[in-house]
Amino acid sequence: MWRREVGTVVRRAEPLPDPAAAILARSRIVPAPTEWSPHTHTLHELVWVRGGTLTSRVGDRVHTVVEGYGLWMPAGMVHEGRATASARLFDAFFAPDRTPIAFTRPMAITMTPLLESLLTHLSSADIDVEARARAESVVFDVIRPSERQFALRLPGDPRIDAIAEALLDDPSDGRSLEEWARLLGTSDRTITRAFRQATGLPFAQWRQMLRVHRALVLLAEGIDVTTVSEVLGYAQPSTFIVAFRRVMGITPGAFSDAAEPSGGVRNSVSRDQNSGLSAQQAEYKLHRVR
Q: Would you give the DSSP letter of residue 273?
């Protein structure tokens, strides 16, 4: 996972009550950066966020959950998560024996306004049984996987794990294949082959994917495009914009606009104004200066 932010609270997942209905929905605000240790649920889970991001690791995949998308987690699957400070975290739990949909692996879900409204409605304890059943049936009708399934695959290969760990710790690390080969006492051909075998991507494309995942978190926190490009090691913002669009299908500016909470004030940060940076982002910028 990414470098843990200063002040991160590590928690265990709370046990869930036995659901009296097919869907149990709830929400809460995460006051500080929060990490949940590896756990499973006996129920399927759909989680989404407002005003922040959630990162979840499942096996060798890292999923980044941003506004407009949710993450479906099948029952019984071991996962861990990390939410940014002040994020509003929503989750809905689905009883497997009463859920007529079958997503057997973690799945990005498009959180349409209708789906969000239905699940928010179902979080109320004042709905009668018949009304709840009607709302649940509509949820089952409208829930859909996203066309963009965005997950970062971690190598899990001892030949290149040190590279992956270094880039997760500092995505701005710009060392080339040749430099990594010298450091690890191997050849650039071996590293190239190992990345393709372990992740399905060449090294440069995998690093680009990792940087875009990290950019999603920083942009969602309101950091401007120029600063994000610097933090991630891009020489020019235009290069970052092209890379982000290639992966996400939209520009980072368009993503930031879409992620802006309605009625909220974004955190405008420039090179000369660092007061809005989180402790982790400030640490990244200091690292770049060193």
A: B
Which tokens hold the place of 134?
Answer: 């009607």
Sign of CA dihedral 222, 252, 150, 258: positive
- Judged by phi (left if over 0) then psi (alpha if -120 to 50, else beta), residue 120 lies in alpha
Q: Name the token pair of 92.
A: 């809905």
Contact 69, 220 (CB under 8 A): no
Nearest to 53 by CA among 35, 38, 40, 75: 35
Q: Give this prediction's pTM.
A: 0.83
At residue 22's C-alpha, the angle toward residues 18 and 24, to 5°, is 60
Across residues 84-95, what is the average pLDDT? Answer: 94
Give per-residue pLDDT as tens, 191-203: 999 999 999 999 9
* Degrees, nearest 5: CA angle 27-113-222: 70
260 vs 108, higher pLDDT: 108
Read off the DSSP letter of residue 235. S
Q: Report, in angstroms and rounded to the nearest whole number, the Rg of the chain calculated over CA atoms.
A: 20
Encoded tokens for 128:
């009668």
Q: For residue 199, give Cα distances in angstroms to 149, 163, 249.
A: 15, 13, 21
d(CA 70, CA 10): 22
Place of tokens 């959630």: 54
**Residue 187 φ then ψ, to 5°:** -110, 155
CA 188 to the chain's CA centroid: 30
Q: Residue 167 contacts by C-beta under 8 Å, 6 or more apart in sequence?
A: 173, 207, 210
Annotate 36-56 with DSSP letters as a single string: EEEE--SSEEEEEEESS-EEE
Residues 28 and 31: their CA atoms lie apart, in Å, by: 9
Percent helix, strand and coil across the chain, each rounded to 5?
40, 20, 40
Q: Count other Cβ atoms within 10 Å, centred on residue 75.
A: 15
| Other C-beta atoms lying within 10 Å of the C-beta of residue 12 | 9
